[in-house]
Write a structure and sequence with these properties.
The protein is mainly α and 104 residues long. Keywords: Oxidoreductase. Belongs to the short-chain dehydrogenases/reductases (SDR) family.
């Protein structure tokens, strides 16, 4: 993993506070770890033909806990971001609007 030449880690640690900085650093992944779930979803037979799922660490994930802010480190999706009933309704209405059969 290449180290960044333009980020002063000590300055970031000082601005965030050591406890917050350490918590954040414990959640980060290296490039290979970060890409693993996306690559797995793209090439795995398990996910072939299955779109619209939230995956986390190479497995299907569920809703997160707590509030969602830019600093949230809990895995999972926001409750408002994934709603199968509303997605199905949106699909049906979209099919009607463009005049195609709903093949779902």
């Amino acid at each position: 993993m290449a180290a960044s030449q333009n980020v002063d880690v000590d300055a970031i640690k000082a601005s965030m506070g050591e406890e917050t900085f350490n918590k954040l650093m414990s959640t980060l992944k290296n490039p290979e770890q970060g890409a693993a779930t996306t690559v797995y979803a793209a090439v795995s037979k398990e996910w072939e033909g299955k779109g619209g799922k939230y995956l986390n660490d190479c497995a299907e994930g569920g809703p997160g806990v707590g509030g969602f802010t830019p600093a949230t480190t809990d895995p999972g999706y926001a409750s408002w971001a994934y709603d199968e009933e509303k997605a199905a309704r949106l699909w049906r209405e979209s099919c009607k609007m463009v005049g195609v059969e709903d093949d779902a």
